[in-house]
Amino acid sequence: MPLTVRVGTRASALALTQTGHVADALTALGAGEHELVRVRTDGDRLTGSLATLGGTGVFVTALRDALLDGRCDVAVHSFKDLPTAASPGLVVAAVPLRQDPRDALCARDGRTLATLPEGASVGTGSPRRAAQLRAARPDLKVVDIRGNVDTRLRRIEDDLDAVVLASAGLARLGRLDAVTEALPFDVMTPAPAQGALAVEVRTADAADGSPLARALATLDHRPTHLAVLAERALLSRLEAGCAAPVGAHARLGDDDVLTLEAVVLRPDGSASLRRTGSTALAGTEDHARSALAAAALGTRLADELLADGAADLAGLGA
Questions:
Q1: Which of 65, 73, 81, 256 is catalytic?
Q2: C-alpha distances out from residue 296 to 77, 133, 232, 278, Å
Q3: CA distance 241 to 106
């Protein structure tokens, strides 16, 4: 590995902030000095809704290409942006401690979801959030929006009553002051892997015993990594991308039992399916077995949802 670790990132304020945190952590853990390599992705360049842009992958393909062709040594992604299929030659070598995975309502006059006026306009670029907003408050006018965090927050001052954003992104940017309600999981189940970061490297570099490989192994947070494995296995089995109305949240208890909650919704919010499952893991000494068990939990819960009609309900796999 080079003396300076080149860390690839998108150029948005949020991406630069979270990548900077990871790069600083790797340096502190002995990986060596670092430099940030800014990479422009399709998700940064194109306009339109996430669904029309192609959904999963629009924010990561260019970063992965930069890893594979040697322009950078590490890429930092918002984990929920990653396609569930493996990328040949690359591996997620570390998943740092997860930020708050909840969605946050940012509204005028300190209002909560329950106290928004009838017919209020709420902005979101996520079909998952839109469906759950409509399920909780069918009277709301849900408006599709794009843009960075500051652009979305400004819409509250201009033409919207509220927007829904990820608490994790607001926390990383120091903008939790804008939050008027952290939405509970039973009202707004987060996207699979929301609040988690994926630190991706070339497969050989993760296992070569280098200072970077050792730093990545130390940076990895086991409870977060296993929870995210379960959530993404569910998403993969449902054949649903990040634009699908699917929510999932897993938690690892002190007894090493992993619990996964999931919801699949009709896009208009008029119907939903919720399921919960759990599994005992293999303990800290056998990460491989625990990872397999976590993924199996996600797959099993997805199979239950599919058996109950989830694909027709949400238009999955279409």
A1: 81
A2: 24, 30, 11, 10
A3: 25
Phi, psi of 250 (to 5 degrees): -115, 150
pLDDT above 70 for 49: no
Per-residue pLDDT for 42 more than 70? Answer: no
Contact call for residues 132 and 314 (beta carbons, < 8 A):
no
**Side-by-side strand order, sheet with 90-94:** 33-38, 4-9, 74-78, 197-202, 90-94
**DSSP-assigned beta bridge partners for residue 5:** 34
Q: How far apart are CA 296 and CA 279, in angstroms?
A: 9
Q: What does the pLDDT average to over 122-149? A: 96
Active site residue 81: yes
Identify which of 170, 46, 156 has the alpha carbon closest to the alpha carbon of residue 99: 170
CA torsion sign, 142 to 143 to 148 to 153? Answer: negative
With CA atoms as reference, report the closest residue to 27 among 167, 211, 200: 211
CA–chain centroid gap for 112, Å, is: 24
